Amino acid sequence: MGVETQYVDTYELTRLGQEVHGQAPIARFERLTEDLPQQLDTMVSWSLRGMQDTTGRHFLRVHVKASPTLECQRCLKPFQWPVDSTNRLQVVKSQAALEDEDVLDAESDDIIERIVGSQRLDVLELVEDEIILGLPYVPKHDVCPSLPEPLAQEPDADPGRPSPFAALGQLKKD
Ligand SMILES: [Zn+2]
Fold it and tell me: 58: which residues sit within 8 A by CB, 6+ positions away?
């Protein structure tokens, strides 16, 4: 697989309209996976392309493809969530320019996100942010494969199950 390009010069990319791409194992993205269940041994692919528009603004087009394993919040089983997203980020020269008035992207109608240009932009950081943005707030199967019995009923309406606090009370008595 080789060593991925980890740092890029955003000024070069946008000036020359270059594209770089690479792959990295999903386990490499600790910020992404720390709160997720055990991951399968999948690769994250990414590409980054610099461009300028006719008004001289600089952009990076980021494409990421990944299949993180998430935990379904309904049946609690792990499942793979395909992320295949493209985003366009405006590259600005300073931190202050990040605060400029919002501009809508003519292509997507979304507010254009901005990043500060760098001669050493950490690509995998950026890729990781993009994947995290692509995750659902409440991950769920479209249709759960099978619901385990206890969860098929209302979890709160289960008088047969002793509460953990009751068990705690017993411990205290001993
Ligand atoms: Zn499910």
Answer: 10, 14, 50, 51, 52, 90, 91, 92, 117
